[in-house]
Amino acid sequence: MTRLIVFNKPYNVLTQFTGEGATLADYIAVKGVYPAGRLDKDSEGLLLLTDDGKLQARISDPRFKLPKTYLVQVEGEPDAAALDRLRAGVDLKDGRTRPAQAQQIEAPDLWPRDPPVRYRKSVPDSWLSLTISEGRNRQVRRMTAAVGLPTLRLVRWSIGDWSLDGLAPGQWRDAPRPTR
Known about the structure:
Elements: E1 4-9, E2 34-35, E3 44-50, H1 53-60, E4 68-75, H2 80-88, E5 91-92, E6 95-96, E7 101-105, E8 125-132, H3 139-146, E9 151-159, E10 162-163, E11 172-174
Parallel strand pairs: 3-9
Antiparallel strand pairs: 1-3, 1-11, 2-3, 4-8, 4-9, 5-6, 7-8, 9-10
């Protein structure tokens, strides 16, 4: 039987089971599961792990265009032009991104981050919901920077139909295998 785990990866945890510092092994004592995709050490949120190689590829391979939604705290206030650029696709050093769903949102009700995001009284920050269908290295951070909105905090909220709903950082649960 295929196992699929939904995990809320805390900030400063490596997306692997071995290495220097905090790793997945500090949170998940399940043998034979591997991450389907990555989250950088300085990113938080949804990570899916499975023991099924085909499912792992379907989740992480950009060919399948599985939507991934991120809640992104950025430095600055987005204007319509910045949001339109994200929606149209952004030119990065490794090519143009696919169009994204992008909108400014109210600050989400998230757990506090440790360490907290730096606060600067003279520089406003805001939140975006950004949904992409590819997964280049540090793509969301590079996209927001390209439109003049450096990322301060990045939380992956959902991948396809799976979400963090109800999971605190460091918690995980088994999820049903997708039927499609």
